[in-house]
Amino acid sequence: MKKLLLSALAILLLLTACAMNQDLQVLRENDEKQSNKIDKNEKDITSLFVRMDEIGSGDKPDTRQYYQDNQQLLQKIQQMAMQIEKLESDVRRLSEQAVRMQRLEKKIEDMDQAPVATQTVVQTPVINSSMEDYHYQKAREAYVANDLAKAAEQFREFIRKYPDHQLAANSQYWLGECYYGMDNYTAARNEFNKVVDFYSKSSKVPDAMVKIALTYKQQGQSEQAKTELQRLVKQYPKYERMDLVRSLLKEL
After folding, report:
1. What pTM was estimated for this model as a whole?
2. How far does Cα 35 stand from its chain's mean position?
3. Among 5, 48, 95, 175, which residue's beta carbon has the most beta carbons within 10 A?
4. What is the mean predicted confidence (pLDDT) over 52-81?
């Protein structure tokens, strides 16, 4: 009876290992897809910068085309930021899954090597998953699928449930992006302002300030947009997208 029980447990462990192997494979494939998307966006961004330089250096700059390229560049940067976040999340999950896999393999190995007389019942390992990461991922998927109303609801729910989580600032930022994508610029500005006010140490703050300026610009409030961008230049002089900020200032 004891041998039969141990055999059943060994089979259960092996089945769990197979399932985890499948999960690892899916994560690796997803990482490869995200890396390819990031590479493509980097090339597109480089091309846009080159084209914008050519437009700006001409005798008669095409202001409208320059603005359109700016908007497209911002969208590409946002897409790449989302893809990088997903890649980082998948890498964390891949690392955690690999560690759990190693532990499981060790348990199976110990069962095979241990004498029957000294073997004890081995509990089935529990595969832990982060509920927070799961909720955040679902919200991002809705955003990428352009289901902005659903994404906004899920990002808001994430902030309500996990206000102190490391992804709360990101959720707040993407909540603003949802409203911006729905052309509700006043609501978007309110949400972006919360990033600045409540998550002042987050790397998303300067991005949020750019979008605050763009909401003003979209509503024809050029002076307010200019003030916001000047504040960004002063507070974050090493902002990685300062070229974009300066080009927006020139337009205003």
Report:
1. 0.55
2. 13
3. 175
4. 64
